[in-house]
Design brief:
Strand content: 5-15%
Number of helices: 7
Strand order of the largest sheet: 1-3-2
Structural class: mainly alpha
CATH topology of the domain at 34-114: Arc Repressor Mutant, subunit A
Number of strands: 3
Distance between the termini: 33 Å
Largest sheet: 3 strands, antiparallel
CATH architecture of the domain at 34-114: Orthogonal Bundle
Order of helices and strands: HHEHHEEHHH
CATH superfamily of the domain at 34-114: Winged helix-like DNA-binding domain superfamily/Winged helix DNA-binding domain
CATH class of the domain at 34-114: Mainly Alpha
Mean pLDDT: 92
Low-confidence stretches: none
Helix content: 55-70%
Length: 151
């Protein structure tokens, strides 16, 4: 059987939007590495801390929704952040399956050390402010659409 040229163009790696998104995401996390090492945080811990720096007090359900992380991923991350003294975990009175997470003073102090990270990462991407805003908007648009789809 002979292939009709072009039948499989959609399967070429160079024609996939998912691949550059994947590769860029992987590289972006790698770029964060030196900055987060100074804070003794993993990228996932950093994401959790950003939510807490913004909200100070959050339920585990709300945190999972904000970070797009499941409980299996969050549980060890929260445990380590608690052990490091950056947050406290308490069972919610209304639902013992949920945790209430509260930023500690030590966690608040870490925010000062982290404030230089976003501009450094933005600079490494080599995008203009307009390109950065467009990338942000399109990425979240695609994410929202995919999350709303029935599979």
């Amino acid at each position: 059987m002979t292939e009709v040229k072009g039948n499989y163009d959609a399967l070429k790696l160079q024609n996939q939007v998912c691949f550059p998104l994947y590769a860029c995401s992987k590289e972006l996390v790698r770029q964060y590495g030196p900055y987060l090492k100074e804070l003794n945080l993993t990228y996932t811990q950093y994401i959790v801390m950003m939510v807490l720096w913004e909200k100070e007090n959050v339920s585990s359900r709300e945190l999972a929704a904000c970070t797009h992380l499941d409980y299996g991923t969050l549980t060890p991350v929260l445990k380590r952040l608690d052990q490091a003294g950056y947050l406290t975990r308490q069972r919610a009175a209304e639902d013992e399956r949920l945790l209430t997470l509260t930023l500690t003073e030590k966690g608040r102090a870490l925010k000062t050390s982290a404030v230089s990270i976003p501009p450094a990462i933005a600079a490494c991407m080599g995008l203009t402010a307009e390109e950065f805003a467009a990338l942000y908007a399109l990425t979240y648009k695609a994410l929202k659409h995919m999350e709303e789809r029935e599979i």
